[in-house]
Specification:
It is a single chain. β1, α1 and β2 form a beta-alpha-beta unit. The chain starts with a strand and ends in a 6-residue tail after the last helix. It is built from 13 helices and ten strands. It has a single domain, classed as Alpha-Beta Barrel (TIM Barrel). It is of the alpha/beta class and 322 residues long. It is 43% helix and 16% strand.
Length: 322
């Protein structure tokens, strides 16, 4: 059976609300939670960007059994990998073996704030490989040092560590990243239906395969399109813009080119028909994913939970992974 998760959107909701939504998602019957890690929202209308590691402490105490993952953290610039190792080990200890760590090469939007040069993707992939190695070494315990091409760790030891080592799920969108994800990760992570999952499998990738499904549930499709156009126009931006634009102002300028028709034609589901939402999950499963987490765009999370609890989750239970 495919697992259906819920997205805790750090860009749209303040931390206390995210903690409340985490508990509500568990009560509704979602199988796991994914929380985004951003320094900035994509556009200022979204309005938030709380520190994910603080929010996760609240989530740990507000939920009982549901698995929780960061999707995804970039452990190569804004955070040194030793800091990610400590933060994730602490959260994993609080969540008692139900935490998983998603990692990726990041977006300039979040990483430029520390004033470092933004390398090309191939270099960021090299940095990610070193970062994952450092995180795993520190999670293993003992005093550790590391001297690589990109990072140095001197006499570091994590004294707070979880009883079980969390899986590291690696994000990828292109062939080279998918190959790296297969080599260093315990699973695959994506946003939307990406063909890179096939490359990951061909290169020996094993483990769960996560992808995000963006939706905007409302009573009418017109209302949903309008909400998505206001709150999440970046969903319709093409190509590599999402990883290369540095500020919310730049994203807002780019989004001036996005129309309501673009929102309708994007992968974001705006239909109030539950069959459309189930079909989107089936499409992701057919593409090779077995973990689909749903991002409800906009402020109406209560309506979304009611709709999914009554209309979508029961239908998804019958979908078997490819």
């Amino acid at each position: 059976m495919v697992e259906l998760g819920y997205t805790l959107s750090s860009e749209e909701h303040p931390p206390n609300d995210l903690v409340e939504y985490a508990a509500r998602a568990e009560d509704a019957g979602f199988d796991f939670l994914s929380i985004s890690d951003h320094f900035h929202p994509w556009v200022s209308r979204q309005g938030e960007s709380g520190f994910v590691w603080s929010t996760l402490g609240g989530v740990a105490h507000a939920t009982d059994d549901i698995p929780v993952g960061v999707g995804v953290v970039c452990p190569i610039m804004r955070y040194h990998p030793a800091v990610v190792a400590q933060a994730s080990a602490s959260v994993a200890s609080m969540l008692d073996s139900r935490f998983f760590l998603g990692v990726g090469t990041g977006e300039l939007l979040n990483e430029h704030v520390v004033g470092e040069h933004w390398p090309e993707h191939a270099v960021r992939l090299e940095m990610l490989e070193e970062a994952v190695e450092i995180i795993r070494r520190l999670w293993a315990g003992g005093q550790r040092s590391y001297r690589g091409e990109h990072f140095t760790v001197e006499n570091a030891q994590l004294f707070t560590r979880p009883a079980e080592t969390p899986p590291i799920v690696v994000s990828a969108y292109g062939p080279s990243a998918a190959e790296t994800a297969a080599e260093i990760g315990d699973g695959f992570w994506s946003v939307g239906v990406q063909d890179a999952v096939r490359t990951w499998e061909e290169h020996g990738g094993e483990g769960p395969r996560y992808t995000q499904l963006s939706v905007c549930y409302a009573e009418t499709e017109e209302e949903a399109v309008e909400t998505a156009y206001e709150w999440w126009p970046n969903t319709a931006l093409p190509g590599e813009l999402s990883s290369q634009l540095p500020t919310t102002a730049h994203f807002e300028q780019a989004c001036e080119l996005v129309t309501r028709a673009d929102i309708r034609e994007s992968s974001l589901v705006t239909s109030p028909d539950p069959a459309a939402h189930v079909a989107a999950v089936e499409e992701a499963v057919d593409a090779g994913y077995d973990r689909v987490y749903v991002h409800q765009v906009g402020p109406d999370q209560a309506g979304f939970f009611e709709f999914y609890e009554e209309e979508v989750l029961p239908a998804v239970e019958s979908i078997a992974p490819a």
